[in-house]
């Protein structure tokens, strides 16, 4: 194939090969630009009906125009070979980058935000990726993120269980509904993005197994080990974002990826501010008061709030307002500081671990009379 000319594309080199086909680097002899050609196997294309569906998917992807999405130029067929022409991206996949070590938290957040912004654009246009994974994320030398393979994931039952029980796609990144072969929407991409974040920060996948069936069982029935238990320095708020993104019930996840982006952008800003302050403390050898002290961070979360929001928005907002007032009153009474509020979650700090625990107990006692509200409270201790 190397050196051959297909249509007006001269094949320069082979870039990679997978279950869906082979990718080549090529020169567009008409426009004098370098492109990537993905030749699809007959098995990938399927019958004529499936081929027509695939072409429709590719056409949907071709209208996506965003800095964080790899541009699809055209789809063509020459001598029985179907191929897609895409922009050539000089860089490495996120999967390749992760082969060396987990990423720094701020770098992982930066990559996540770019993926999220690309997905937000696609979802707004009605396109669902269905196969978000580290191997489908390219990173250029200038740290620009590009999502690959939009429009390719729904080929001949891709990423679902077939009648024979075979799995197509990458099981470890599948949402529960996707793994069961149910119809998926943009919230499945949100789950998969959560898996990618987990992978970037921990260096491992949240759901593992030697066989696809084992992985799918884990996805359906088990909870991943908390990031804070695998790595120090992980913001508690980021754990909350992941728990929400990877809720097994799609109605309890972020309903739109841009909501997730807003929370992640806030976390990134706070993390960078904290890192800057810590660096100053390290440089001086002390904290502002010259001593280290034990402190506590308390995170609260309204259970099943997103599901309630989708059913009765007015009731959900009323509960949120009532809960926020109750929390702020108790936190203030126990000498705590209300730091911020992220949707249905809140973050506060206490100079005393005992005060934080007592505050949590009083909050739970006050919540016993609230039948419509269930609150999850997590407290982290450490010296600062």
Round the mean pLDDT to the nearest integer and report it: 84
What portion of residues is helical? 40-55%
Distance between the termini: 61 Å
Widest β-sheet, arrangement of strands? 1-2-3-4-6-5
Largest sheet: 6 strands, antiparallel
Instruction: Extract low-pLDDT stretches.
Output: 155-168, 282-288
- Which percent band covers the strand fraction? 15-25%
Q: Topology as H/E string?
A: EEEEHHEEEHHEEHHHHHHEHHEEHE
Q: If you compute it from the alpha carbons, what radius of gyration comes out, rounded to the nearest whole angstrom?
A: 24 Å
What would the principal axes of the Cα set say about the shape? Answer: elongated
Annotation field: number of helices: 13
Number of strands: 13
| Helical/strand content category | alpha+beta
Verbal overview:
This protein has 384 residues and is of the alpha+beta class. Helix content is 42%, strand content 21%. The protein has 13 helices and 13 strands. The longest helix is centred in the last third of the chain and has 28 residues, at 257-284. The radius of gyration is 24 Å and the shape is elongated. The model is unreliable at 155-168 and 282-288 (pLDDT under 50).
